[in-house]
Amino acid sequence: MTDIKDLADGMKRVSVEGKVVEKGDPREVKSRYKDETYRIVDAIIADESGSIKLTLWNEQIEQVNVGDNIKIENGYVTSFKGEAQLNVGKFGKLTVS
Fold this sequence. Notes:
With 97 residues, the chain is mainly β. It has one domain (4-96): CATH 2.40.50.140. It has one helix and seven strands, in the order E-E-E-E-H-E-E-E. Strand 3 and strand 4 form a beta hairpin. It starts with 13 loop residues before the first strand and ends with a strand.
């Protein structure tokens, strides 16, 4: 497991555990490639070392609530507007405990 403070843009195959401390409101985004719309929510997860923004897509939104402890396996980190973001992606796994 990686500490949240050690996550950096470009990291792949990261495994992280943290607690959901904040969850925003869903918004809709259009796919660049298909004529589809997706729902996304930005959440903040934290451990004893720090916190990071986690992007939740579609069915993940209902799985995760503030106060939940979650584990992300095979996730990756990107940067959006200079801020690191954790992503589960289609090959990652999100587990709520």
